[in-house]
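Quick one:
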Amino acid sequence: MVLQKALDSAKDRPKDEKKVIAGGIAIFVVVALFFGWAIFFLKKIQSGEQRLEFGGGAQDEFLPESVRQAQQNIMEGFSNLEELEAIRNESTARQVEGGGVPLDTGSGDDPFGTPDTQ
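Output:
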């Protein structure tokens, strides 16, 4: 009922207002579809069904074998998440034990480390 009244009132409006209404509806539909796709895509990644690959289809035809081998080595090097987490935890522990990274601010009372201009 409400939808029918809205459509009847839209028929009596000028052509420019009809275009604005249609554009608004189209933008709303596109945004809703994008958010739906993003939610399903992120859930798929979290569940482990989606594997991230950095290779391209047509691009591989023009790459020499050495470049393909290097890309494969890089992808294999970053596939071990446990090793990366161990490295991150080790470096974080070193920073905490050492009190963080010391900053060299130069000499004097100037916190920005700019030289004195006297």
